[in-house]
Design brief:
Elements lengths: L5 H16 L5 H17 L10 H13 L11 H18 L21 H8 L9 H10 L5 H16 L3 H4 L7 E2 L4 E4 L12 E4 L5 H17 L12 E6 L3 E7 L8 H13 L9 H13 L3 H10 L5 H8 L4 H10 L4
Antiparallel strand pairs: 1-2, 2-3, 4-5
Helix pairs in contact: 1-2, 2-3, 2-4, 4-5, 6-10, 7-9, 11-13
Length: 341
Amino acid sequence: MTKRNQENERTKRAYLNYLRNAKGKDETTLDKVAAAIIRYEQATGFKSFKQFHPEHAGRFKKHLAKVKTDRTGQPLAKATIDAILRMVKSFIEWLAGQNGYKSRISYSDAAYFGNNAKDARVAHAKRQTPYPSMEQCAHAFSQMPSATLIERRNRAGFALLMLTGARDSALTSLCLKHVDLIEGQIFQDARDVRTKNSDTFYTWFFPVDEMYRDCFVEWVNALRKDMLFGPDDAVFPKPKIEVVEGIGFQATGLTGEIYANAGAFREMTKGAFVSAGLHPFVPHSFRKTLVKYGDQICDSREQFKAWSMNLGHDSIDTTLTSYLQISVERQGELIKALKAA
């Protein structure tokens, strides 16, 4: 394995510190940037950034085209390659203004990391993403078991997705102090909750089937009254794993601790649909489900604006553009149904 360049490591730390403190980037973004730069170093054999040459960019693109993902063994997606190139391009632009690099790298050198026009179009093309119908969600939810604490927790997580459409990273970082059952709302406080762009906002429960609210209320009351969880304990806590004689490692309760990421939550959601014989929909797809539902029941622009705000969108345009796309077939139906004035 090629030894990493220590000078490069110091430079990368300085760049990540710049992104964190000057640009306000979160740790998830910083991890992605660091991984992209490491890929670039691997393609150049960990040469010093001061030895930059435009041909390194071409070598890097060829390297990315050959990389296979660990999970599927398939080549990197066009969108993934495009994102990696953009992150390294931004890094090179930053380097061009730093002492020790100004004489070796120019701002124009960053242009060599641009994606070719064809692959860029593929990477940025908008595609219809699958999302569950309200009926499919109800069917999957009704099939979820509730015999154990973990199963009850998972059902409550599914229920809160339907009630709020909150992002999985936010839900897995919610504490009991963020839940107000009387008002029927959660407070997505960016000081504690992993919200997108560190936004802070209130989300009231959407008017969906009462079975979701009943499930979630029962779960929160169980945490507070039966398990004596406090305000800072997780709404969807990690399990307590212990060695049980004759069985081995087993979940024996809940810790009250917050999950470090939403991985387990995503798998739970997909598993609920698969067990019900449906497509493995991810938590984020619930947001589109709820937007479509809101479009059906909202009677005014003001109501739909409130619906949009409930999802954490500052602009209703975000809701319409990202979550209320019209299929090609529906486009044709609407146009054919129009009458001349």
